[in-house]
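Recall that a protein's primary structure is simply its ordered list of amino acids. Everything else, from secondary elements to tertiary packing, is in principle encoded there. The following example makes that idea concrete.
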Amino acid sequence: MGPVARPSRGEATRARLLDAGRHVFARRGYRATRVGDIVARAGTSQGTFYLYFSSKDDLFATLQSEVAAEFEQLAADLPELGPTPEEVDALQSWIERFLAACDRHQPVLRAGTEADTTRGRSVIAEHLGTLSAALATRSGLPARRAFDPEVAALVLVSTLERLDYMAGDGRLEVSDRDLARTTAGIVTDALYGPSARTTERERPTTT
């Protein structure tokens, strides 16, 4: 295995500005953040900032693109849903990944709700829509329910994101694992009925 390529000085500076943007957006919010706040956090100058980004909006759009790319990958990796223990476990693992992504990107997700630009609103809506469409397709909902499967999936994805937000604020004392396990069970029960995922081991024995 060859030596690992080290980032160039320019790449490192750009990454430092992006990290600073995440931190400042989380602390001050989108509207209150200024370019001066970001460069102060990054330990660089405004002149350097403008070598890489044309404005605060430009930096924020880059952060949102990173979020969108991860959620697009999550949508692609969503497993087929079903009532078997293996399928429920796969859904739980996927929900844990989703919650972890929300944790990592919470500063951008929060700032996006108050961003004034069309780009700011559309990226957040786009990743929710992509996930909802994938969830609806893999659930088989149209054959089982009379309501719109994409609306039902959007309710689930939005609820998970909001619960993760509340957990991050300390308003909800629950681990991602417990939240994922409970949600996976609720989704499976809603789609297939509680009895569908009852295993032989779980059924009461008769004498």
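The two ends are 62 Å apart (CA to CA). Residues 7-53 form a domain with the Arc Repressor Mutant, subunit A fold (CATH 1.10.10.60).
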